[in-house]
Design brief:
alpha+beta; 5 helices
Length: about 190
């Protein structure tokens, strides 16, 4: 499963400190929780930049969000008043761990397509169409949490490779963004 957290930060004067906390101690702490496999953070760089920050976590199962460890440290603590446009959704990925697929090096980028304006009832048929248009992208349907975005697509790319936007007949309601990594991908360390 792929856990996606998207947000904006409203205090430019505190943004550097927030990124240091979220990309440092918070990211490291999340990797100690049961069922969390990996995580990495990104900042919007090209195409649609209306949602500036993206965190991508790989978890073994939805049970990751019910453990006492996760529940005891959930949230942004003192940063909450400055978080805007926040969403968290869980997507069903392939059976295998996709951490390597999502590991974006510092000089790379992550293509991210979000079905933000597509009703969930319509998402499955739209997903089939975009999969045919972009077969090299990992497309996933929402499986839990907020369910605010019914499907996404992700693909690691070189920083100098920006795909052409989806054709207009497919693009309606889909927000495409190129994100650059602001942290390395962290992996869980298990005994």
């Amino acid at each position: 499963f792929v856990y996606i957290v998207r947000s904006n930060f409203t205090r430019p004067d505190l943004e550097e400190q927030w990124n240091a906390w979220y990309g440092g101690p918070k990211l490291a702490e999340m990797m100690t929780h049961p069922l969390f496999l990996s995580g990495q953070r990104y900042r919007a760089a090209e195409l649609d930049r209306s949602v500036r920050y993206l965190a991508v976590w790989v978890v073994e199962s939805p049970d990751a969000f019910t453990t006492p460890e996760y529940r005891s440290t959930w949230g942004f603590v003192e940063w909450t008043p400055h978080i805007a446009d926040w969403s968290r959704n869980l997507y069903r990925g392939p059976e295998e761990d996709v951490s390597d697929l999502l590991d974006v090096p510092p000089d790379g980028a992550l293509y991210f397509a979000a079905f933000d304006g597509v009703p969930e009832a319509e998402a499955a048929s739209r997903l089939t169409l975009v999969e045919a248009e972009r077969p090299d992208v990992l497309w996933m349907a929402v499986a839990g949490l907020d369910r605010s975005c019914p499907a996404i697509g992700v693909r690691r790319r070189g920083a100098d490779v920006t795909p052409k936007p989806l054709p207009s007949d497919l693009a309606s309601g889909i927000r495409e963004t190129m994100y650059r990594p602001i942290t390395d991908r962290r992996r869980a360390k298990r005994g």
